[in-house]
């Protein structure tokens, strides 16, 4: 400890002690951010998983309907449900693709490097600097994932609208032809 730290001060750490405190605090805050980002990603993936179940239920209902009424008229009429379901499923598929994602912790090999003048402060500052880049990369991945899940939800919500519209247009066409 420095001589400054030997004397109590109402201002907290100062000088070298402040630089060490700042490095420790930067690492701690970055680890909190990374943990929060991991929880947010798990939330988005949970929403996507739930939506996959609903899309599958829609497609199974269409398959059941086509199984009980196997005519070209019903098959063509079901395209209004199948098409937006497939688009929604495609977006949901993208959510679960491998992605660049950072978690807390530093690889031991990084810590075992030979540093020019190693100190606890410089090592902690190096960890904090790595975390800064990782937090930013995770943030971009979260934004992309949120956008993808949102698009999947929009297409899912369009299923009944497009299904009824398509069925109505197709029924009117068939009625007009007859």
Automatic annotation (TrEMBL):
Keywords: Membrane, Transmembrane, Transmembrane helix. It comes from the Bacteria. The chain crosses the membrane at residues 48-66, 72-93, 152-177. The lineage of its organism: Bacteria, Pseudomonadati, Pseudomonadota, Alphaproteobacteria, Acetobacterales. This is DUF2868 domain-containing protein.
